[in-house]
Design brief:
about 325 residues, ten-stranded antiparallel β-sheet
Length: about 325
């Protein structure tokens, strides 16, 4: 790809957020949807700065909740662009938390995100940059980018089909919620929905589906296989659906689908589809078996178990990736 070369290290964006009570759940830990929002916000800023223009979210994977961020702590999110194609930028975001004034930190989350460079009409725009490693540590992140290109390919290839499929989900324990996209839901592009701000609502609806199915309180463990297929606009009617597609002993997998509709323009499209894992929690905030075991069709349960293998494999790599990010961040002034 011809264009201007940028070091991975120079794309670093750091976001600091205090964890106030309004951002927490009943256990005093950071709401999973709010955490995802902040991580994607940091990722989009890193991608925008590197590309020199607007970006929209295209796909997410690996967004694991590693440890809870707690009330009163400060959350630090670090985002680096680890690679690019003609229209896309791949970003690794890592979040850690620490008590105020404290030096001891703990990992909270890690994710890989793909952003699409677009113009003011939300059409793909060649950004004209090359992302290159300028140290041994970032060389390993370049390798991660190449692996992610292969892993995200099936997700990206589904985008057109997902956008056109506006039918309601056909999953057990389905729930849905409606809202109108307001101006405050936009970010850098005027009148265009900022996908990161969706995650609080996505998390709420997914949790409701899991709670109704299992009879237990739940918290978020991960988001993955997220595909953003088309934009939503201010004034659109937004439908968020969620249904259970698999269960473990303490976990439940929830498929989420977000559809936007403009009745005035007779336009209807699916914005996104993704999976989230919810975990049943006891009074002490620790995982417990579901109070009610949801009944899931055999074919759905089988597919869930295959996805769980992928999640376990990817989660096993998080410590290695965290060490890489920390080694780069600590070297920078």
């Amino acid at each position: 790809m011809d264009g201007r070369s940028i070091c991975i290290e120079s794309t670093l964006i750091t976001l600091l957020r205090p964890i106030y009570p309004r951002y927490t759940n009943r256990y005093g830990t950071l709401h999973g949807g709010m955490l995802a929002w902040w991580m994607l916000e940091a990722g989009s800023m890193s991608a925008m700065r590197a590309s020199g223009g607007y970006v929209v979210l295209g796909a997410i994977d690996y967004l694991f909740m590693l440890n809870p961020g707690r009330l009163g702590e400060n959350l630090h999110a670090y985002s680096l662009v680890i690679g690019a194609t003609r229209h896309t930028l791949d970003v690794l975001t890592y979040a850690e938390s620490a008590p105020p004034g404290g030096r001891e930190t703990k990992p909270v989350s890690l994710s890989i995100q793909t952003f699409v460079s677009v113009d003011e009409n939300v059409k793909p725009r060649p950004h004209g940059i090359n992302i290159k490693p300028c140290s041994m540590e970032s060389k390993a992140l370049e390798t991660l980018h190449l692996e992610w290109l292969a892993e995200r390919k099936p997700l990206i290839e589904e985008r057109k089909l997902i956008a056109q499929d506006t039918k309601p989900l056909e999953t057990p324990y389905r729930v849905e919620s409606y809202q109108v996209i307001s101006p405050e839901a936009a970010f850098s592009l005027p009148n265009v929905l900022d996908a990161s701000k969706l995650f609080y609502d996505i998390d709420q609806v997914a949790a409701i589906a899991a709670m109704k199915a299992t009879g237990s309180p739940v918290v978020t463990a991960s988001f993955d296989a997220a595909v953003f297929a088309s934009p939503g606009y201010v004034g659109d009617l937004l439908r968020i659906e969620a249904g259970i597609t698999g269960v473990g002993n303490t976990s439940s997998e929830v498929l989420v689908k977000i559809t936007a509709e403009n009745p005035e323009k007779d336009r209807k499209t699916t914005i996104a589809r993704m999976y989230t894992i919810m975990v049943s929690i006891g009074p002490d905030g620790r995982p417990i078996p579901h109070r009610i075991k949801p009944k899931i069709p055999h074919t759905l349960q089988q597919a869930f178990e295959e996805r769980q293998k992928t999640r376990r494999r990817r989660r096993a790599r998080t410590q290695q990736l965290i060490r890489l990010v920390e080694s780069i961040v600590k070297k920078l002034p």
